[in-house]
Amino acid sequence: MSRTLLLFAWRDLVRRPWQSGLMLLGVVLGVAVMVSIDVANVSARRGFSLSTEAVVGRATHRIEGGPSGVPEAFYVQLRTLGWQDTAPIVEGIAIAPDLQDRPLRLLGIDLFSDAVIRPTFGLDAWTQAGAERFFLEPDAVIIPAGLAREGGLLPGDRFRLFLGNRVADLSILGVWTPPENDPSEALDDVVWMDIAAAQELTGTTGRLTRIDLIAARDDVPGIAALLPPGVSLVPASQQAETVRQLSDAFQLNLTALSLLALMVGMFLIYNSTMFHVVQRRQILATLGVLGAESGQIARLILGEAAAVATVGAVLGLPFGWALGQTAVRLVTQTINDFYFTLSVRQAPLEPATAAKAVAIALGAALLAAAGPALEAARIPPVAAFQRSDLEERASRGVGRAAGAGLASLAAGALLLAAAQRSLALSLGGMFGVLVGLALMVPLSSRILLLGLVRLLPRLRASRLRWGLRSVVRSLSRTSVALAALMVALAVTIGLGTMIASFRQAVDDWLDLTLRADVYVSSPLGSGSQPRGDISPEWESRLGSVPGVARVEPFRAAQVATEFGPARISAVDSYRIRDARLYRSSSGTAEEVWNELRQGSVLVSESFLQKHGLRFPMPPLTLTTDRGPRSFSVAAVFYDYSSEVGTVMMTQEVYHQFWSDRWLSSLGVFLAPQASFEDVARGVRNVLAGTGLHVTTLGDVRQRALAIFDRSFEVTSALRLLSVLVAGVGMMSALLALQLERAREVATLQVLGMTPRELGAQILLENGIMGVLAALLSVPTGLLLAWILTKVINLRSFGWAIPWSPGLEPIAIALGLSLLAAWAAGLYPWWRVSRAPIAERLRAD
Amino acid sequence: MTPFVELRHVAKSYPQGGSTRAVLRPTDFSFEGGKFYAIRGRSGSGKSTLLNLIAGIDEPTSGEVRLDGVSLRRMSASERAVFRRHQVGFIFQFFHLIPTLTVVENVRLPLELAGVSGPQADAEARERLRRVGLEGRADANPDRLSGGEQQRVAIARALANRPRLLLADEPTGNLDQATGDAVLDMLEGRVREERATLILVTHSRAVAARSDHVIVIQDGRLAPVGRIRRGGAAAER
Question: Is the model's pTM score more than 0.80?
Answer without folding.
Answer: no
